[in-house]
Amino acid sequence: MSGATLPDTPTLPVGGTPTRRRRERADRSAAEARGTSRWVVLGVLVLLAAYSVAPLWWLFVSATKSRSDLYRSNGLWFTEFHLFDNLYALFTYQDGIFVRWLWNTVVYAGLGSIGLTAVALAAGYGLAKYRYRGRGTTMGLVIGSFLIPGSLLIVPTFILFTRIGFYDTIWAMILPGMFGSFSVYLAKVYAEGAVPSELMEAARIDGAGEYRIFFSMGTRLMSTAGATIFLLHFVATWNTFMWPLVFLKGVEKWPVMLGLYSWLRRGVDTQYDLTALVLTGSLVATVPMVLLMISMQRFWRSGVTIGSLK
Fold it and tell me: For residues 198 and 133, is the Cβ–Cβ distance under 8 A?
């Protein structure tokens, strides 16, 4: 009929239904919360990075200063640049004894780390891939031994090395470092996942012996574990202090950390401020660690790639 009117139809709000508006508000709140959490995480990481880098920055800045500027200027910023003068004094003081200490540290850390890596990879590989009577007992002894503090072993080791003639020799620094139970455990855990038993069986079917399987296949698959063991022990030996303090008597045999400590105790000399030499020597002693870390990054990259391909 022409006079009839249709009932009014409800019109939707411009922003959509209430449910849709609530969902949009929830999404915006979640996005804002995620943005806030990212900024919080970023701020914490920046603070941690600054906390980690600040001592190294202070060390570098201090190594560039003269004797007077070292005590009078701001420790976190430069004054006159005297780094090369400090390096010259460092390498010429006492007929270049610092070079001798640095070389001793390289020998102790290098040979000990190579020996430890070889022993740990072989022992860990054997514990992981072979079954024999007493295997559980052996593993228990390995785990129990690295729970013993190393300081408890200094006195019996000192008595043993004195009796067999290793006191105040290079072997007192190298031989104890070649056997580490924690490194064996680390190699064992890694070998369980990195060396497939099926691949070993295939090699045995092809006529390969156990030694050939280990050296040709096992060591390559465990290269990441070997690099980790080598680096951990190298850094620990490079920074060691108590062991050479007890077992080395001659100044010519000291590592760099013990030598720098002896300078720090003396404080000053007739010609040099030994505190400045200690700071410069500490800066020089960190360079091999940085170079070693950069050169060994490829082992971790290749290890991650191998794990992803499995």
Answer: no
Q: Tokens for 148?
A: 């013993």
R_g of the chain computed on alpha carbons? 31
C-beta of residue 233 within 8 angstroms of C-beta of residue 112: yes
In terms of phi and psi (left: phi > 0; alpha: psi -120 to 50; beta: otherwise), the region of 96 is: left
Whether residue 4 lies inside any domain: the answer is: no
- Please tell me whether residue 273 adopts helix, strand or coil conformation: strand
Residue pair 224/300 in contact (Cβ under 8 Å)? The answer is: yes
Q: What pLDDT digit, counting tens, does each position of 128-166 carry?
A: 999 989 888 999 898 888 888 888 888 999 999 999 999
What Å distances lie between residue 228 and 67, 289, 302, CA to CA?
40, 14, 13
Number of residues assigned to the chain: 310
Look up residue 115 and give its amino acid.
G
The number of CA neighbours under 13 Å toward the Cβ of 289 is 15
At 263, which CATH number? 1.10.3720.10
3-state DSSP assignment of residue 54: helix
**pTM of this structure:** 0.81
- State the average pLDDT over residues 102-129: 94
Range of the domain at 248: 83-309
Ordered alpha helix ranges (H), the chain: 18-63, 67-72, 83-92, 97-129, 135-145, 154-164, 171-174, 181-194, 197-205, 210-213, 219-221, 223-238, 242-247, 256-266, 274-295, 297-309
39 within some domain: no
Cα–Cα separations (whole angstroms), residue 20 to 14, 52, 212: 11, 48, 68
> Is residue 172 in some structural domain?
yes
